[in-house]
Amino acid sequence: MDSETTLASPPAVAQKVIVLFRATGDAPILKQSKFKIGAAEKFAKVIDFLCRQLHRETVFVYINSAFSPSPDETVLDLFENFGIDGKLVVNYACSMAWG
After folding, report:
1. DSSP reduced 3-state for 26
2. CB under 8 Å, gap of 24 or more: what pairs does 28-36 form?
3. Cα 67 to Cα 35: distance, rounded to the nearest angstrom
4. For every one of its 99 residues, what pLDDT tens digit does the chain have, with 9 covering 90 and above?
5. Quick check: helix, strand or coil at residue 47?
6. Residue 28 DSSP code
7. What is the distance between the alpha carbons of residues 87 and 43, in angstroms, rounded to a whole number?
8. Is 60 helix (H, G, I), strand (E, B) or coil?
9. DSSP 8
10. Contact, 50 vs 59, CB < 8 A?
């Protein structure tokens, strides 16, 4: 059993973060608004996923209706600093909503 635990992924890699998507402005509402994503993933993966869900090439994303994070940020860093009630709230829009 010990050899299996040493081969397991580190907890940070296996950890998942709940992302809650909220439509803003003229953006269509997703049928499912909560998704889990690996904590070690870059925020760019969240943006790509959202673009595929909305069938759009570009989408504007904001954390807690306040700022647009860098695509290079990890989901875990954003969650630890800006998560609310165990979720990372991501607002999205088809046109720029907040400067």
Report:
1. coil
2. 28/54, 30/54, 34/87
3. 20
4. 443 433 344 554 469 999 999 999 889 999 999 999 999 999 999 999 999 999 999 999 999 988 999 999 999 999 999 999 999 999 999 987 665
5. helix
6. P
7. 14
8. strand
9. S
10. yes
Residue 71 in contact with residue 47, Cβ under 8 Å?
A: yes
**DSSP for residue 89:** E
Running DSSP on this structure, what letter comes out for residue 84? B
pLDDT of residue 26: 87
The confidence score (pLDDT) of residue 7 equals 39
Written as one letter, the residue type at 70 is: S
As given in the structure block, the two tokens for residue 34 are: 């909560």
Burial class of residue 21, CB neighbours in 10 A (0-12, 13-18, 19+): buried
Q: Round to whole Å and give the CA distance between 21 and 10.
A: 27
- Distance, in Å, from the CA atom of 76 to the CA atom of 99, rounded to the nearest integer, reads 24
Radius of gyration of the chain from its Cα atoms, rounded to whole angstroms: 15
Cβ–Cβ under 8 Å, residues 63 and 96:
no
